[in-house]
Amino acid sequence: MSDYQQVTVAEVVRETEDAVSVVLDADFDYRPGQFLTLRCGEVARCYSLSSAPGLERPQVTVKRMGYGSTWVCENIEAGSVLDILPPAGVFTPKSLDDDLLLFAAGSGITPVMSIIKAALARGTGKLVLFYANRDENSVIFANQLREMAGERLTVIHWLESLQGLPTARHLTALKPFTGYQAFLCGPTPFMDVVNQALRAMGVPRDRIHVEKFISLSGNPFEEVEVTEEDGEEATVAVDLDGQEHTFPWPRNKKLLDLLLEKGLDAPYSCREGACSACACRIERGEVKMLQNEILDQEDLDDGIILACQSLPVTDTVRITYT
Prior knowledge:
Blueprint: E1 5-16, E2 19-25, E3 35-40, E4 43-48, E5 59-63, H1 67-75, E6 81-84, E7 100-105, H2 109-122, E8 127-133, H3 142-148, E9 153-159, H4 160-163, H5 168-171, E10 181-185, H6 188-200, E11 208-211, E12 233-240, E13 243-250, H7 255-261, E14 279-284, E15 287-289, H8 297-301, E16 304-306, E17 310-312, E18 316-320
Parallel strand pairs: 7-8, 7-10, 8-9, 10-11, 12-18
Antiparallel strand pairs: 1-2, 1-6, 2-5, 3-4, 12-13, 14-16, 14-18, 15-17
């Protein structure tokens, strides 16, 4: 069974007609921009935290879009008890003192809001937010953003009802800020346009950070079936949290399953290759991934793999989480 915990809902805040924030009566460590995986009826879904760690109670913000989010909006109320997996995700600044160029569309504002709150409270950098929505009524956190805007935070709203869909040409107005670290979250077409614009303006790939979510087909809260081992083993060396571990690695066992079995606190969430929470880097050897819905070719070229989907190909493999 996955290592989940149960938390009580403190309150549900209606943000717009079709979006709510679920405030949790809980205290746990997380980084700005990370997400939680919730059990939503018969399915599991990943929802970003819109709160800032250490500054307020944890909360996820959910926009009604499919079965999972509809279940949240219609069934959760103050006093509800939720099953959640530990916070996960790599959509988070390395330093809150960095200058940040933030792009969000619709509910993509959720992890970006977490980053903004944390950076304004604990960082020193300047922030520029480009926030696209269908119309004025669909702007999540409109009042909060208005109150936070000022010397350090510039907010640029884009409304499709008035301006049409943003294009790469429109985004060239942000060229003065392309020395900033860029963070993108929203529907795939929106992020594709933003990515195209940033690359055209000369922003290197290592300064572009993209958050992607794909609906999970399985349920990480359920028992994970362990297949019988066939006797063949590779060897894996893993650098995790500054410590190196070496284990025999059965050919048919996924890397994440092996690390958890050995008692390591390896990060993960969906276990389906759809969220990047278990991403690590291969430094030596070769693996094959059974599923990959999140890494692009440049990630793969850089040696990034998903531990939850990786099986050994070579006899020895070295992995690092640093």
